[in-house]
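Q: what sequence does this backbone want?
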């Protein structure tokens, strides 16, 4: 792990870190599962976190042994329908949907002269940031269309560092999912895991929730 003094930038995930859109994703996927007749469970819901749209759909279809019942075009239609449902929910978001302590932490990072980028697999990330009124904090956003591999592959976090012209070892990545932490570690960045320590045991730094994230608390765990 790097020393805190080596750190020059932060690469953020969006869902579950800056805001909790996962509840909207779950609602929208649940609607699709009901439509195709796939069983919905807490296990399935958790398994979809941080996974791309088409991979998520495959998991839902597999849960009902329905993967061979739909053509590729029909699958695209189902995924598009999910996104439309999701965007209706996102449209109602306000800055009140920012997770506890995150706005203060972003201000602290900015005032400290650190660089920021966003590494979200979501194509809707710019829309979400706009609703939360956080667009100006993230001038650099990884475009998921430019990626060939999803998390846990390091590609998205390597791009996040590249966008702010930093080496991976100068960056801290912030995640709430095990696949995301794996992605940060594989990229050679320092990982912060937010959530259950037993699930995010591979993170270099752990916080139970977003409100605990401050530069002082991170420094304490790193050094």
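A:
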């Amino acid at each position: 792990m790097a020393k805190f003094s080596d750190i020059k930038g932060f690469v953020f995930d969006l869902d579950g870190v800056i805001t909790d859109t996962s509840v909207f994703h779950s609602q929208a996927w649940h609607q699709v599962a009901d439509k195709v007749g796939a069983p919905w469970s807490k296990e399935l819901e958790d398994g979809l976190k941080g996974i791309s749209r088409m991979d998520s759909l495959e998991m839902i279809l597999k849960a009902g042994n329905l993967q061979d019942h739909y053509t590729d075009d029909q699958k695209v239609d189902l995924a598009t329908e999910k996104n439309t449902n999701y965007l209706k929910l996102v449209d109602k978001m306000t800055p009140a949907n920012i997770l506890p302590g995150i706005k203060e932490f972003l201000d602290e990072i900015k005032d400290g002269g650190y660089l920021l980028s966003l590494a979200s697999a979501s194509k809707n990330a710019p829309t979400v940031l706009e609703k939360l009124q956080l667009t100006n904090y993230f001038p650099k956003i990884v475009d998921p269309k430019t990626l060939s591999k999803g998390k846990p592959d390091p590609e998205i976090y390597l791009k996040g560092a590249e966008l702010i012209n930093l080496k991976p070892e100068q960056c801290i990545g912030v995640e709430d999912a095990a696949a995301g932490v794996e992605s940060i570690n594989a990229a050679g960045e320092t990982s912060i895991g937010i959530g259950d320590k037993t699930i995010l045991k591979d993170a270099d730094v752990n916080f139970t929730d977003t409100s605990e994230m401050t530069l002082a608390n991170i420094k304490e765990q790193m050094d």
